[in-house]
Amino acid sequence: MMALGKRASETQAAWVASTDLPKSPGHVFYKKLNQLLAEARFDAQLEELCRPHYAAGRGRPSLPPGVYFRMLLFGYFEGIGSQRGIAWRCADSLSLREFLGLAPTEASPDHSSLTKIRNRLPLEIHLSVFQLVLQIAAEKKLLSGKQVAVDSTTLEANAAMKSIIRRDTGEDWKAYVTRLMREEGVIDDEDEPTDDELRRFDQKRKNKKVSNADWQSKTDGDSRITKMKDGTTHLAYKAEHVVDLQTDLVLAAEIYHADQSDSQTLVDSVVAAQTHLNEAKLAANIEEVAADKGYHAAETLELAQSLGLRTYVAEPKRPQRLRWHDKPPEFQQAVYANRRRTRRNKGKRLQRKRSELTERTFAHTCETGGGRRA
């Protein structure tokens, strides 16, 4: 038998002992993660890294760096793409408050605190924390670093195409098309065309294109005009990940201009990953690199080979055979060596692992994590 429970009134006791507060069983993942971070002295190392960016002994104590980076980790793990969402979820969950190390009566950090700390700490600090995590993984034998895969995707910039202006004159689209109409005699100098007239004229003019050489964003000068995965055109960036094929750990997460081709950035990303491994004090050199056909270029393969890297880059189908009479012999040798490797069973196996592991990191970051828009 069970009696009917009744909801208590809104009026609550003015004072409640902390021992009487409800306890959450927590999540085993966050408990294990906190245990791992404590063993590695994660918080102490973070405080030492961030100390130069705070006043010495003056002012109100800031949000501890360990709490800030734990909240970022939580947002990544749970697929929350906004700081407001992270702050709200941490305030609402007893297990997450325990993960952050907050006392029962202590208020959880506000989203504005995350913004202030993110603006205070430079990119180099975040990069050092990334390398610190890799070092912890290396100490736990969770990092190999010999076989890697590289892949990229486009991230829509936080800027609209309506904000683009001419690089040479600073005109926006409306002023630019109006000037063209006056130069062609469609309207008089003192006339102002309507929006419909501007659109009709713009649709009919020949040789119309919007290139990064002529246009840029007024609000985000680093973004580039590019075609996205779904075929639409936006201002965007290119994100490129280097993933350890043995352990599925991201060794480098680089951001490039969206108009840089994959073949232009392959070696740079691998070098960045090797730098992170060196900073993590892992005595391992990247030896093999797998990538899709978008990275295939003779110059890139030759450069990778000169650096001691064995490439497994899928070769695109071409309507005719490659011609080598006007290219250095090293280019031909690198392309043929890469072709032989990709046709072997090992090359096919690495390509399967590449498609599984690298695309998973983008699905987590861009789709689940809400980072498709940068």
Can you tell me about this structure?
Residues 218-356 form the Transposase IS4-like domain. Residues 26-120 form the Transposase InsH N-terminal domain. Residues 188-224, 338-374 are annotated as: Disordered. InterPro entries: Transposase_11, Transposase_InsH_N. The protein is an alpha/beta fold. The protein has 3 domains: 25-121, no CATH class; 130-158 and 237-368, 2-Layer Sandwich (Nucleotidyltransferase, domain 5), CATH 3.30.420; 161-219, no CATH class. It is 44% helix and 13% strand. It is built from 13 helices and 8 strands. The protein has helices at 28-39, 42-50, 65-78, 83-92, 94-100, 111-120, 123-139, 173-183, 195-204, 262-279, 298-306, 329-343, 345-368; strands at 147-156, 164-166, 215-217, 224-227, 233-244, 250-257, 288-291, 310-313. The strands form 2 sheets. Strands 1, 4, 5, 6, 7 and 8 form a 6-stranded mixed sheet that branches. Strands 2-3 form a two-stranded antiparallel ribbon. The longest helix has 24 residues, at 345-368. The chain starts with 27 loop residues before the first helix and ends in a 6-residue tail after the last helix.
